[in-house]
Amino acid sequence: MLGDTYSTMISEKTTDEKQEELTKLKERVQLGGGQARIDAQHQRGKLTARERISLLLDKETFEELDSFVLPQNEEFGAADQTALSDAVVTGHGKIDGQIVFVYSQDFTIQGGSLSGAVAQKICKAMDMAIKSGSPMVGLIDSGGARIQDGVDSLAGYSAIFERNVIASGVIPQVSVILGPAAGGATYSPALTDFIFMTQGTGQMYITGPDVIKAVTGEQVSLEDLGGAFVHATKSGVAHFVSQSEKECIEDVRRLLRFLPNNNTEEPPLNPNIDDPNRRDEGLRNIIPTNPNHPYDMLDVIHSTVDNGEFMEVHQLFAPNVLVGFARIGGRPVGVVAQQPKHLAGVLDINASVKAARFVRFCDAFNVPLVTLIDVPGFMPGTSQEYGGIIRHGAKLIYAYAEATVPKISVLTRKAVGGAYIVMSSKNLRGDVNYAWPTGSVAVMGADGAVNVLNHRELAKAERPAELREKLIKEYEERHMNPYVAASKGIIDDVIDPAETRPKIHRALEMLSNKRESLPPKKHGSIPL
Ligand code: HXC
Fold this sequence. Notes:
alpha/beta, 2-enoyl-CoA Hydratase, Chain A, domain 1, eight-stranded mixed beta sheet
C-alpha cells in the first residue's frame, strides 16, 4: 500500500525529479480530501482544517508535522491511500510571537474521524506541547471514532485523553468545536480548559438523535441536542459561543493573550495604556439606596479593569456569577463577581461549579484572583438541596482555600453566611480584603436573624409587627456595616469606591512576588 502512494519516491529518479515529486506531494497534502470535498465543506458553511490554522496563527509561522502519514487500517477499504495526512493537520506556530501547538481535524477526509494514525499524530503534537511548555489548541470537526478502525480508534482516544489529563494544569488547553464532535470526540474537549463553539455548525453529543430515539423514544434535533447555545446555557459545557469561525478563532487568540505558556511562567504583562491610579467617582453612587434593588456588577468591573476590557467566560451560563479575564495595571487577572442583576447574585449549584472551575484554572496558571462580592447567600430550596448544593458549594470553598495565587476581594454590598466564607474570605487565606462603606458581613439577613433570636419576644408581643420592624432596624444598625468586620481585621480596609482600581492595582503590585505553598500530597480529594 505504501508503494502506491510513494512509489515514485523509491524509483530511480534524478534529484530534480525527486524534488519535483516532493513538491507534488506537498500540493496534494494541501488538498486534503480533494477539491470536491473542500467545496462541500464550504457549502456547509465551514472552513477547511488548513484555513482555520491560517486564521489562528500569526502569518507564515505554521510548521506542519506528519503530513505524509497515511491511514493504516485497510479493512472495509478504510485506508484511502490518497488521503495524505489522514484526517488531521498537526504542527506548531505562533500567536503574538508565542509558540502554540495545534491540531485541526480535516472533515474532508472521512468526516474528520479519528483513526489510529490520526490519534498518533495528535498525541505527538500534544507530547511536544507538554515538553516545550506551550499551549495546545484543538480545532475539532469530527464524526468521532473511525468506525473501520475499530479498537485502534478507541485506543487512540484513550491515548489522547491520557495526555489531556497529564497536560492539565501544565499547559493551557483549548478546544474549538467548529463542526460535529460526536461520541469520543466530545471527551477530549471536555478534559481541556476552555471550549469554544460556533453557533449553527458546532455540535457536541455523546449519542446522536437516532440513537436517542431508539433507546429512550425521545425526539430531538441535532441543534437542540448539542448545539452551541444549548451547551452555553444549559449544560455549561461550552465557555464561549461565536457566530462565525473567524470571530471564534479571533477569540481564541484573545484568550491566549491573557495566559502564560505554561504553569511555570507568569501571565504576560501588557504595556499599560490605562492609568492604574485612575479613579471613578461614579462608583460612589452605583449601590442603590434600597438594599433589595439590583445594579450591574459589570459596570464595576468595566470601571476597574484596564480600558474596560473584560473577556467574560461562561457568559450565558449561571449569569448570577460573573467570571472572566481582564488586566489591571497591565497584569492579567481572573475576575470572579456576583451579578446582583440575576437572582440577586445568589450562589446556586451552577454558579458554584462555574466559579470553582474558573478559580482552579487561574490558580493553576498563576493568574491572580480579584473577587467582587455582593452575595445574599446560597440558594434555598429542595431542588438545590436534592441537586447537591452542599457538594457543589463545597467545590468553591475548596477552590478558593486551595488557591495560592494573590487573592484580592472587594465587598461592595452584602456577604451573608456561608456565601461570605466562600468568596475569597480572609480565613480562606484571602490576601487583601477591602469593603466599600456600603458593605456588610452577617451570619444571616436581618429578617431571618430576628426570627431566630427574638421568636419568644415576638410571640408574646401585643403588636408583633411593630416590634419586628424595630428589632430588624436595630440588627441592621448593629451588624449591617463593614466596620464590625473591619474592627476584627477580617476586612483590611474600608475604601472609597472611587479608589477601587488604584487600591486593587497596588495590592496586586505588593503581591506580585507572593510565595505560598501547600503541604506535599499526591492530589487533594475535591468533592467532585
Ligand atoms: C468513518 C465517517 C465517520 C466515522 C463520518 N464519516 N463519520 N467515517 N467513521 N465515525 C464519513 C461519512 O461516511 C462520509 O463519508 C463523510 O465522513 C462525511 O460524513 P457525512 O455523514 O456525509 O456528513 P454530515 O451529513 O455532515 O454528517 C456528519 C456526522 C455524521 C453528523 C458526523 O457523519 C455521523 O453521524 N457520523 C457518525 C457519528 C458517530 O456515531 N460516530 C461514532 C461515535 S462512537 P463519504 O465517503 O460518504 O463522504 C465513538 C466511540 C468512542 O466515538 C468513545 C470513546 C470514549
